[in-house]
Specification:
Radius of gyration: 17 Å
Structural class: alpha/beta
Number of strands: 8
Number of domains: 1
Distance between the termini: 28 Å
Strand content: 15-25%
Bound molecules: magnesium ion
Strand order of the largest sheet: 3-2-1-6-7-8
Shape: globular
Order of helices and strands: EHHHHHEHEEEHEHEHEHHH
Number of helices: 12
Largest sheet: 6 strands, parallel
């Protein structure tokens, strides 16, 4: 399928979390002494050279994270938020857009980050993991679509119809959503993966998420945001980075 024009307005915008809204890969931060091995597996899953299912359980079984370690990832997501993330979510919400996060990351820290971004639990799709009574990792939700390739596409395809939808992400599982959405936008402010960019309807290379404004909003919507003091900095930043 030839690439399409992003063609805003959109009624719904879904974001990947790791390396899109936050600069980190949460699972890599849990890696401790296994970090190099975990990073290599994540990288291969995100560029599509290994199926996500092969990587998912393997990384967790290697790390066996403690509940309190997993909880700290929420704070790391916040500390490493991509510039403009919270402002962009606020801008989308103020124009009445539905905003979602679809992440192959762990649900507890992604929800912590989502709340900081101004979203609620129900806006988050991510993977549950379980702990024993001592707070040690036992298992993960092996039935979640988000632990395998094509899972994000399935979730997007299953959402109520009738909303023009964009998906923003950096990984191969994000690019897979393109047949279920009206536009797939590849954000390369953190990670650059040619395998993902080639499937994108738009590629945004700016260091901050403000660079998404011209892709996600019509000129008229951008004017509206620019007239609102709450969003003026975001709009100014977008024009500086353009
Ligand atoms: Mg990502």
């Amino acid at each position: 399928m030839p690439n399409r024009q992003p063609n805003p307005p959109f009624d719904r915008v879904a974001f990947d979390c790791d390396s899109t809204l936050s600069r980190i890969e949460g699972i890599d931060e849990l890696g401790r002494e296994h970090r190099a091995e975990i990073e290599a597996l994540t990288q291969r899953a995100m560029n599509g050279s290994l199926p996500l299912t092969e990587v998912y359980g393997k990384r967790l079984a290697t790390i066996r994270p403690l509940r309190n370690e997993v909880a700290t990832i929420g704070r790391l997501y916040i500390e490493n938020a991509v510039p403009g993330a919270r402002e962009l979510v606020a801008a989308l919400r103020s124009l009445g857009k539905e905003v979602l996060i679809l992440s192959g990351g762990l649900r507890m820290p992604v929800v912590t980050f989502a709340q900081w971004l101004g979203l609620r639990d129900e806006h988050v799709h991510a993977v549950q993991i379980s702990f024993d009574g001592d707070g040690r990792y036992t298992t993960y939700d092996t039935k979640s679509p988000l632990v395998r390739n094509d899972g994000k596409r399935e979730i997007m395809a299953g959402l109520p119809e009738g909303k023009r939808t964009a998906f923003v992400g950096d990984g191969i599982t994000d690019a897979e959503t393109r047949t279920a959405v009206d536009a797939f936008v590849c954000f390369r402010g953190v990670a650059r993966r040619p395998e993902v960019a080639e499937h994108a309807d738009a590629v945004v290379d700016t260091p901050s998420l403000a660079g998404l404004l011209p892709v996600l909003f019509t000129a008229q919507e951008q004017d509206r945001l620019g007239r609102d003091p709450r969003h003026r900095d975001l709009v100014r930043r977008a024009s500086l980075e353009a």
